[in-house]
Amino acid sequence: MPCTEQNEYASHVHELRVELAERSYPILIGAGLCDEFARHFQNRCANNRHAIIVYDQQIAALAQSIGRQLEGSDRRVSLIDVPSGEQSKSVDSLQSLWQRMLHERTDRGSVVVAVGGGVIGDLAGFAAASYARGIPLVQVPTTLLSQVDSSVGGKTGINLPAAKNIVGAFWQPSLVVIDTQTLQTLPDREYISGLAEVVKYGVILLPELFEFLEQNAEQVLERKPQALAYIVRQSCLAKAQVVQEDERETGGRRAILNYGHTFAHAIEATAGYGRWLHGEAVAMGMHMAAHLARLLGRVDEAWVGRQAQLLKRLRLPWLLPDADEPTLWAAMQHDKKVMHAALRFVLPIGNLGKVELVSGISQQQVYQAIRSASQEH
Length: 377
Ligand SMILES: NC(=O)c1ccc[n+]([C@@H]2O[C@H](COP(=O)([O-])OP(=O)(O)OC[C@H]3O[C@@H](n4cnc5c(N)ncnc54)[C@H](O)[C@@H]3O)[C@@H](O)[C@H]2O)c1
Ligand SMILES: [Zn+2]
Fold this sequence. Notes:
Layout: E1 14-18, E2 25-30, H1 37-44, E3 50-56, H2 60-72, E4 76-82, H3 91-103, E5 110-116, H4 118-130, E6 137-141, H5 144-150, E7 155-160, E8 163-170, E9 175-179, H6 188-204, H7 207-215, H8 217-221, H9 225-245, H10 261-271, H11 278-295, H12 301-313, H13 325-338, E10 345-348, E11 355-358, H14 363-374
Parallel strand pairs: 2-9, 3-4, 3-5, 5-6, 6-9
Antiparallel strand pairs: 1-2, 7-8, 10-11
The structure holds nicotinamide-adenine-dinucleotide and zinc ion (ZN).
Residues 56, 58-59, 84-86, 89, 116-120, 122, 142-143, 145-146, 149-150, 153, 155, 165, 182, 185-186, 190, 278 line the site of nicotinamide-adenine-dinucleotide.
């Protein structure tokens, strides 16, 4: 079933709906939406009289503005700040968040509003999923990665020291408010890293998005409002569509979102977490996946070159320096063991916009793909 696109009820608000029966929710996209946050919140959470705003310390002013608006509409507001960075997705931070929620007299009539990137969305989302056996959640993503990926789809969770995202829950938000204006303050490296996931949607599902990126790379890099609106909308549409078809990753469909990610996770783990941003590793991982697909005769040389060209134009790294096949392979085996999952690759086939899940790839084929992906200049 296609994801429904609703008419725009105000000229600058674009609304998509994620259709998941009683867990369906709207995604609102537009520049400046946080300036009228209370109105959007009221439409969806009229009965929730207490909002717990969990926010990234880096964007305190935005969280405070949202808080003032909700107070102005006669709600009790609790502001809870969380330090920036992946280390906040920990058992300790979750415990202190639960404690603060308790202290703020949070109950089933409360709603968690997550304001920040994927770290805050995942942490606050899991707090919402688990506190009092689950209270409503509103996502206000403020990084490109969180706007096009993590805020939609209901995956929430935290890390353990030896495994990322290993503890968590599926917990769909009641509302996602995406204010593309917030991206203007994002550091360049973070912004560009998020573009890798946008390229991914182009490859797996939306050739027209891929072509838009090719034709408008400069406007995208300059974060022109129109270009932002288009890429965020299309990406959310793609993510919503896949999630609708396979909400809990049981049918295999949702796995296509992992294009480039088997390699990327190995790159992130072997380089030491923190060396590469996630999207950077995804860009290099997509290049390796493209080479693997070519080795298997699934796509031609031109396909591989076209994707590499786009990654380059978007200033994403696509060649992993000093790629070491045995180390990457070992990391893939470890990841497989921790996740209790088979080693499967999402690989393109034929033209842009189509991928398949492929298992039974040999060590030798993976080595060869990594080698040929690293040999270009
Ligand atoms: N739940 C999912 O489906 C899903 C999907 C993909 C990734 N993730 C998770 O998302 C996390 C990564 O998310 P991320 O890339 O958004 O990282 P992040 O949340 O760490 O944000 C990146 C940096 O940007 C800063 N920041 C946030 N908004 C800003 C703004 N508007 N202006 C300036 N700076 C701002 C943050 O303080 C941080 O330093 C990872 O933990 C990953 O596991 C989850
Ligand atoms: Zn990703």
